Amino acid sequence: MTENKIFKKQQWSFTLLNFVVFTLIFALFGLIISTIVKNTLYSKTDEELMNFKGRIEQVQNEEREIGVPSSGNGQPRFGEGLFNPRMVTLKWNEDKEIINQEEIGSDIIAYYFQDLIPDFKQLDTIHNITVDTNTYRTLIFKSNNESSETAYIQLLFNVDAEQSIIENFEKILILCTVLALLLSITASYLLARKTMKPIIQSWNRQLDFVENASHELRTPLTIIQNKLEMLLTVPNARIIDKFENIALSLSETRRLSKLTTDLLTLARADSSETQLVKEWFEADDFVKHVCMPYVEIGELDDKKVQLHLHSNMEIEADKSRIHQLLVILLDNALKYTAEGDEIIVSTNVEDQKLVIEVKDTGIGISEESKKHIFERFFREDKVRTREKGGIGLGLSIAQWIVSSHHGTIQVKSNGNKGTIFKIKLPKKQKF
Ligand code: ADP
């Protein structure tokens, strides 16, 4: 499968995943809201049904105590605060026949409750039933007046109004859910694209990195192989005669060694494997200690390396990494300057931060290259930098060291001639 197809497939599976998650969230919300609405609407009705039941039972008890004949059984009397025009009370005998037809009106019974079959299994639980086109909240319970003909009492509370509110609400909810799902398809797709973007970018960066690294490794290996094969063709030759071949092989081996060390440093930096070892030290003393050998190397090449150290500051940092950072900048300054040029390393304090500047009067860097200078394997002039032993990883490592110390690194032109690298490091680290 090509890379593009893999990315597309991954993007679709992200889209699907997002969509499923959105749908589940909407469905859950819909369910919660409709349950809350139903419960709120029915809570008053249910409370009234329970009150009514309690009142009927109370009346039945009173009648039993004073020995009122069964005919009046249990119907709460008007004016006792329990009459409700939406409530119908049906009394059933053991044969499941309505026995209070006259009380309610034979016509009403014939018209509305003719086909009603009560479910005596659902005793004492409030539930919904539909009779003809009407919806009722109903409660069936056993009559506690044994002397009467009434076996069961069924309370029916008409909830057509509540039901139509719920139905309308459900329609709106379904409409909103459909709209939300349509929106969520679009959102899922856009989100998946956004999620894939950094993955594709880092994949491509990784690919470039591996390609560049293998190219850089292959060149010195080919040179070493060629030189060794040439030596093998003249087994009797003396070392002094083949000195150039051996020296070149050695220099390419050193290059290989540096390359692998740099690659390892960056790989560890990428996987956040490298831990900084923080300690407090005097910045100027440390910079002086690192730069001193370069003053001597500079003198040998007729280059003036000067130190202007005025920070007078203690910082908390990883000494070995700051050492590596200074070496990278000083190496570059020496590599890209000519005889008679000047290199100045200075320190001072800005906004309570340590500023280290490495300034040179060398060949300088073009404005276009400055944008890419910290990219891995970037070299302004590949042939020339290779001659000088450059690989294009030094400034990437420098940038990683600075950012892992929560600092900044900038490159600027040194007037008309040369380059300035300016580093700002905070005094104290928040590791
Ligand atoms: P290299 O190993 O090639 O020096 P770096 O990452 O250290 O790799 O530098 C990247 C490129 O930046 C170099 O190839 C060079 O073109 C440019 N460069 C770095 N430092 C300087 C400098 N002081 N003066 C001019 N060019 C520089």
- Gyration radius from CA atoms, angstroms: 45 Å
Strand content: 15-25%
Helix/strand order: HEHHEEEHHEHEEHEEHHHEE
Report the sheet with the most strands, covering strand number, pairing sense and barrel closure. Answer: 5 strands, mixed
Termini Cα gap: 43 Å
Task: Give average pLDDT, whole number.
Answer: 88
Helix content: 40-55%
Q: Catalogue the ligands.
A: adenosine-5'-diphosphate
Question: Order of strands side by side in the largest beta sheet?
Answer: 6-8-9-11-10
Number of strands: 11
Count of helix runs: 10
The global form is elongated
Pick out the low-confidence regions.
70-74
Structural class: alpha+beta
Q: How would you summarize what this structure contains?
A:
The chain has about 425 residues and is an alpha+beta fold.
